[in-house]
Design a protein that fits this description.
2 domains; two-stranded parallel sheet; seven-stranded antiparallel sheet; Outer membrane efflux proteins (OEP); alpha+beta
């Protein structure tokens, strides 16, 4: 019975132990391209910035609505009674009016405005001595107003459209700049993770080598070929590499977390995310481009420079606009209209309403008759006029012009400052590239020499010519040389990525696309 209880207890403890173990995330092997594509899809900074071009596109559409025709309808119906001051009409007379109107208005690109309107009304009154009642009146009218000085010309009147288009381009350049930065961030984080993993591998290899050396030393001490001091030295070396591995693993986790955050990888219900295992190796591909060629590429491709140029264009548009606002107002007006008239013609006794005021018959008319007069263009009327206004107190406009000029000068200086900043940035990167290239060559040669020296010292140690302390020193030096070589290669790769970012071409060199944008 006791044995059964003991067995059940052990099984229970085993299950508790198994379920209490932390669930480790699966290792996923990914290439640098995989990480970049994932970042383009998931990165929140890119997702937020991607809204701006679409928002600006609607601003362009909104500014163009100014030149879309406007159609309006009107209806009016009123009735009033009014006391008369003429005894013939009686004490009170009433009048009812029913009218309709249709208006079509269009702003033209030269600054003018065209209005085409059609109206039709019916008037019915009890007023005495009226010859036509009810009366049907129609009117077709064309009005055109064109500024000749102030507010004249396509450039002035398309100001809002051009600025909105430039603002949309600025939004696209801002999106491109964000993507370029994130592509670089992914590449930098990826190679730093590679370096951390390789450094960990060097430490793990050194640890295994030290453990093997410890086993050999203990065996030699057992038979009297080595001393207790030799064993202690070997144990110390093992402990040293175990400590280094703890630090190296922490660096791997930190580098992995940074790459995971840039890609915005999802987590499962337990809060864990898949572990990243880089598939690409840091192979060296030297950059073949001169400093002068790099500057030309940056001027063409760098989104910040293109964005600043669009800002200057907008400030130039404002300067031209406010210059125009200082001109006198000279407006050409042209009006043409075609009236139509119809109604019931009343026939009075004696041939005149003043004879007896008695209606003995009528000749009926209709709305259609008045509209027929209009569309037959029976009664043509036109008018041409010029209105000239000289503003005497144009203080506000002059202040606006002065402000626009100052802002334009400011934008020009900002572009000059940005150009110098790009120049200095590329210059520093070129220096960094040269230094890292030399560092790659020297670290590789140094690692080769240390590898040969370590091999020779290991042979001498086997022959008993050198002690363990001396051998461990060369082992540490070789591990440091190998780590330095990896670091130099990764630093060069990151410098190349930094140069592509500074030139604004890393999306082209990586053949990356984002939605339908042509970067």
């Amino acid at each position: 019975m006791k044995r059964l209880i003991l067995t059940a207890g052990l099984i229970f403890l085993c299950f508790c132990f198994l379920f209490s173990q932390e669930k480790k995330p699966e290792k996923t092997q990914v290439t640098l391209m995989d990480c970049m594509l994932k970042a383009l899809e998931n990165n929140l900074d890119i997702s937020v910035e991607a809204f701006n071009p679409d928002i600006s596109a609607y601003s362009v559409r909104q500014s163009r609505e100014y030149f879309m025709p406007q159609l309006s309808f009107g209806y009016d119906n009123f009735s009033y009674n009014q006391p008369s001051n003429w005894y013939v009409e009686g004490d009170v007379y009433s009048q009812k009016t029913d009218s309709y109107s249709l208006n079509l208005e269009q702003n033209v690109i030269t600054g003018g405005r065209v209005t085409l309107s059609l109206s039709n009304s019916t008037t019915d009154t009890t007023r005495s001595l009226t010859i036509v009642n009810p009366t049907y009146s129609s009117n077709l009218r064309l009005n055109f107003t064109q500024p000749l000085l102030k507010n004249f010309g396509p450039n002035i009147n398309r100001r809002d459209v051009k600025k909105a288009q430039n603002q949309r381009d600025i939004s696209v350049f801002g999106l491109k700049s964000t993507i370029i930065q994130k592509v670089y961030d992914v590449e930098e984080a990826y190679w730093n993770l590679v370096m951390a993993i390789e450094s960990l591998s060097v430490s793990e290899y050194s640890l295994e080598h030290s453990r093997g050396q410890l086993i050999k030393t203990k065996e030699a001490a057992r038979i009297g070929a080595k001393t207790a001091i030799d064993v202690l030295s070997s144990e110390t070396e093992v402990a040293n590499w175990e400590s280094n591995i703890i630090s190296a693993r922490a660096q791997v986790e930190s580098a992995e977390d940074r790459l995971r955050k840039i890609m915005n990888l999802p987590v499962d219900a337990s809060g864990l995310s898949e572990s990243i295992l880089p598939a690409d190796k840091p192979l060296v591909e030297k950059v073949e481009i001169t400093f002068e060629e790099a500057l030309k590429v940056a001027v063409k491709e760098r989104p910040e420079l293109s964005s600043k140029q669009k800002e200057i264009e907008n400030s130039n548009i404002d300067v031209s606009y406010y210059k125009n606002q200082l001109l006198p107002q000279l407006d050409l007006r042209f009006n043409m209209w075609y009236p139509g008239q119809s109604g019931d013609l009343l026939i009075y006794e004696g041939g005149s309403p003043y004879y007896s005021g008695v209606v003995i018959g009528k000749i009926e008319g209709s709305r259609g008759d008045s509209l027929k007069d209009v569309f037959d263009f029976k009664y043509e009327n036109w008018q041409i006029s010029l209105d000239f206004t000289i503003p005497l107190g144009n203080v506000l406009s002059r202040a606006s012009l002065a402000q626009a000029r100052l802002q334009n000068d400011q934008k020009l200086l900002e572009r000059e400052r940005l150009s110098k900043s790009v120049y200095n940035e590329i210059l520093e990167i070129f220096k960094e590239l040269k230094n890292n290239e030399k560092s790659m060559e020297t670290s590789s040669r140094y690692r080769e020499l240390m590898e040969k020296k370590l091999s020779a010292e290991e042979e001498r140690h086997k022959l008993g010519l050198v002690g363990s302390e001396w051998l461990f020193r060369y082992q540490r030096d070789f591990a440091s040389a190998r780590t330095s070589e990896i670091r130099a290669i990764v630093n060069y790769k990151i410098s190349v990525a930094k140069l592509e970012k500074a030139l604004g071409i890393n999306m082209k060199t990586k053949n990356l696309k984002f939605r339908s944008y042509d970067f």
